[in-house]
Design brief:
The structure holds 2 protein chains of 2 kinds. Chain A is α/β, with parallel strands linked by helices. Chain A folds into 4 domains: 8-63 and 234-305, Methane Monooxygenase Hydroxylase, Chain G, domain 1 (Up-down Bundle); 75-225, GAF domain (Beta-Lactamase, 2-Layer Sandwich), CATH 3.30.450.40; 314-493, Histidine kinase-like ATPase, C-terminal domain (Heat Shock Protein 90); 505-627, 3-Layer(aba) Sandwich (Rossmann fold), CATH 3.40.50. In chain A, 47% of the residues lie in helices and 20% in strands. Chain A is built from 20 helices and 21 strands. In chain A, the strands form 6 sheets. Chain A has a 5-stranded antiparallel beta sheet, sandwiched between helices. A 5-stranded mixed beta sheet of chain A has the order 9-11-12-14-13. Chain A has a 5-stranded parallel beta sheet with strand order 16-15-17-20-21, with helices on both faces. Chain B contains 3 helices and 5 strands. By secondary structure, chain B is α+β, with helices and mostly antiparallel strands. The termini of chain B are far apart. Chain B is globular, with a radius of gyration of 15 Å. Chain B has a single domain (19-100), classed as 3-Layer(aba) Sandwich (Glutaredoxin). A 4-stranded mixed beta sheet of chain B has the order 2-1-4-5, covered by helices on one side. The chains are: A alpha/beta, B alpha+beta. The A-B interface holds A 24-25, 27-28, 30-32, 34, 36-40, 50-54, 56, 245, 249, 286, 290, 329, 332-333, 338, 368, 371-372, 435-438 and B 1-3, 6, 26-27, 29, 31, 58-59, 62-63, 65-66, 70-75, 86, 88-90, 92. Strand 1 of chain A pairs antiparallel with strand 3 of chain B.
Chain lengths: 630, 107
């Protein structure tokens, strides 16, 4: 391979152009991260021609949505699964069959799910999917979607059936399903109607007003879950687009550096080159390498945010890494006398199970930061020590404890308010810092991620503006960090929908089977574990059984007061006497006398039916917190 | 590896005979609308009678994004006087636009 030697002017021109590009890239990222611009994403290539497609990437907003979606612990974030489980919930007692229709973005109505309680009739009910409602229909789901009004048909007459259906075929399927009573409720979330949920009874059951209220509550929960699933999907897509954008940008910037580096290498091999040219060439190389590193940082960041940064852990002497990093980064500043570099490295083993090149990157970042932000005649101090784990009084064991490496400077310092977000990507202390010192503000974010992938921590302290800063890396000694890191990786993989801790175990005592099942399903939807009992005897034996098992113990009782074999009041007296259980009474009676009685029996709260799920949840939380008090 | 002091290049403000500007937008997004409004009022204030604005909607002509290497929307490109300059964002920061277009008055 041969390179045409380029003149200095040509090279200088190329470098200048690269600088311009990098500046532009920084500006682009700034504008996007500050919400002043949307990224343009290249999504496909056709016959060598790039096709540009537009996508809005509102990074911050989407990250917030993502966080919100994550904060909803109860539902699946998968739309299909959410709809399926909602439909199954409905046909497990409350309805014989049900249909869920959702409005699509382009104004159509899509029939997402049709479910039947009887598996033999599932095929029949599925046929309804061939007849999605049309937007202009005067009744049925389309009408409810337009008006947002729930509808209850207590008794469906044969004449009524005649009016339903778009054509004879539709009417045939409908008639075969033999609906006799129906409820149709809107699926509404955040003020928007997302769809309609239709419940049908083909048996003797006639839906009453209470059923309608329950259907509305079910729909409210389902709508929330649907909304979450959609937001999550949108946020994920946007996040992916953002990563893709960064990857493209980095790649576009990296590519032209390759020939420049090749030319520099070939020039450096030219023995006839005068000494002055050689010096300029070294300068050019250093700067191109710096550019390349900035771009690599961008690429790293995309890998980190996709969870794709892989580490290869090896037995590593951190002391050696730190010493090398100091030589590489600070050698020039020290030799020229610009800064004073103080080394206070402890005389102990600094052995950790680590990815040496990645950790070097961390030390380089911290040292370069210190160099960048420390004015002439300042001091950078690098300290290290090995600390015993806080719990143990024994001297540092070679396989426990922490290696602490500190980089302190006497530089510009960090504003107290900025300490919290200096580790966020694209954020430096403030905009003035960005303008004054340049850089993408990625180094610290990457360093923090790398240290955390090693099972360690990276922290910053500063006494304030103009008073220097100290960055502290803490890494576990020996193999423990590696094991901790593997655990973190597993945790990140399962970050969605993982319940932490043991769910609250509720004993629900209710003799009305449908109400019990529906309520149990709703409570389970909130993340609780629910055991249902229909009688006082069942409830007592369930509580007894649960007390026998290790983690099955019941935490809370929710009980109806009128039970077939006795009173909920007697039951509560038993349970609170035997197991000291807190309880919530659910009753149709709410006179003061009733409240007093239930309080005497040991119920912490008395709720009068009908209760909303929100209220019930609040009361459960209150009672649970109260139960912890002495 | 010490950083270079900034402002090495001379940034002599250009006397804009005619400033030829191109605003890249993507449909009527709020940011694009804001950018155009900001641009118009900015030009009236600082470049009255000496500017030309061309608005390019990339939803209609996506291929044009290539020419000026547009990576984000909205982006303002000063095509004349050369050298070409780019300002990314909704142009709400007048100071940034002044600097970007090289119009900041000498202080």
């Amino acid at each position: 391979m041969t390179f045409t030697a380029k003149s200095h002017e040509q090279l200088a021109g190329e470098i200048a152009e690269l600088r311009g590009r990098l500046r532009e890239a920084e500006e682009t990222l700034r504008a996007i991260s500050e919400g002043e611009a949307d990224a343009l994403v290249i999504t496909e290539r056709q016959q060598g021609e790039r096709v540009y497609t537009l996508k809005s990437v509102r990074a911050e907003e989407n990250l917030r949505l993502l966080a919100d979606a994550g904060a909803m612990p109860t539902e699946s974030l998968d739309l299909e699964a959410t709809l399926q489980s909602s439909a199954l919930l409905a046909v497990s007692g409350f309805a014989d069959w049900c249909v869920i229709d959702l409005a699509t973005e382009d104004g159509r109505i899509e029939r997402m799910v049709a479910a039947h309680a009887d598996p033999d009739r599932q095929t029949l009910v599925e046929e309804l999917k061939r007849f999605p409602p049309r937007g202009d229909e005067p009744h049925g789901p389309a009408f409810i979607l337009r008006t947002g009004q729930s509808q209850r048909i207590a008794q469906m007459s044969p004449e009524c059936l005649e009016t339903i259906g778009q054509d004879p075929e539709h009417r045939r399927v409908f008639a075969a399903l033999a609906p006799r009573s129906a409820l149709q409720v809107p699926l509404a979330a955040r003020g928007r109607i997302l769809g309609v949920w239709s419940f049908y009874s083909s048996s003797d059951r006639r839906y009453d007003e209470g059923d309608l209220a329950l259907a509305e509550e079910l729909a409210r929960r389902a709508a929330m879950a649907i909304d979450n699933a959609r937001l999550y999907a949108a946020a994920q897509a946007a996040n992916l687009a953002k990563d893709q954008f960064l990857a493209t940008l980095s790649h576009e910037l990296r590519t032209p550096l390759t020939p420049v580096m090749a030319v520099i290498s070939s020039l450096e091999r030219d023995a006839g080159l005068p000494e002055t040219a050689r010096k300029s060439l070294a300068m050019v190389r250093r700067n191109v390498e710096l550019e390349a590193r900035l771009i690599d940082d961008l690429l790293d960041l995309t890998r980190i945010s996709r969870g794709k940064l892989e580490l290869s852990h090896r037995r590593t002497d951190l002391r050696q890494l730190v010493e090398q990093a100091i030589e590489t980064c600070c050698g020039e500043a020290e030799a020229s006398g610009r800064l004073c570099i103080v080394r206070e490295l402890a005389d102990a083993d600094h052995i950790a199970w680590a990815d040496a090149p990645r950790l070097s990157q961390v030390f380089w970042n911290l040292l370069n930061n210190a160099l960048k932000f420390t004015p002439d005649r300042g001091t950078i101090t690098v300290r290290s020590c090995v600390e015993a784990p806080p719990s143990s009084a024994a001297p540092a064991d070679p396989e426990t404890g922490e290696i602490v490496i500190q980089v302190s400077d006497t530089g510009v310092g960090i504003r107290p308010g900025a300490l919290g977000h200096i580790f966020n990507a694209f954020e430096q202390g403030d905009l003035a810092t960005t303008r004054r010192f340049g850089g993408l503000g990625l180094g610290l974010a990457i360093s923090k991620a790398i240290v955390e992938l090693h099972g360690g921590r990276l922290g910053a302290e500063s006494a304030g503006i103009g008073r220097g800063a100290t960055f502290t890396v803490r890494l576990p000694v020996g193999r423990q960090g590696y094991e901790a890191a593997e655990a973190i990786k597993a945790e990140r993989r399962g970050a969605w929908g993982v319940e932490t801790g043991r769910p609250l175990h509720i004993l629900l005592v209710e003799d009305h089977t449908d109400t019990a099942e529906a309520l149990a399903a709703l409570l389970e939807g909130l993340g609780y574990r629910v055991t249902v009992a229909g009688t006082v005897a069942d409830a007592l034996s369930a509580a007894g059984d649960a007390a026998e098992t290790a983690d099955g113990t019941i935490d809370l009782v929710i009980s109806d007061l009128g039970l077939p074999d006795g009173s909920g009041l007697d039951l509560m007296r038993e349970l609170s006497g035997r197991y000291r259980l807190p309880g919530i009474a659910l009753s149709g009676y709410g006179m003061e006398e009733d409240l007093r009685k239930s309080q005497e029996a040991g119920f912490a709260r008395h709720l009068t039916k009908p209760v909303t799920l929100d209220l019930l949840k609040d009361v459960i939380d209150q009672v649970r917190e109260g139960a912890g008090d002495p | 590896m010490t950083p270079k002091p900034g402002g090495a290049e001379s940034a002599a403000p250009v006397d804009p005979e005619v400033c030829e500007l191109r605003l890249y937008v993507a449909g009527q997004t709020p940011k694009s609308v804001t950018a155009l409004a900001n641009l118009k009022s900015f030009c009236e204030q600082h470049l009255a009678g000496k500017y030309r604005i061309e608005v390019i909607d990339l939803l209609e002509q996506p291929q044009l994004a290539r020419g000026d290497q547009i990576l984000a929307i909205p982006t303002l490109v000063r095509r004349l006087p050369s050298p070409m300059r780019k300002i990314i964002g909704d142009l709400s920061n007048t100071e940034r636009v002044l600097v970007g277009l090289d119009l900041r008055a000498r202080s």
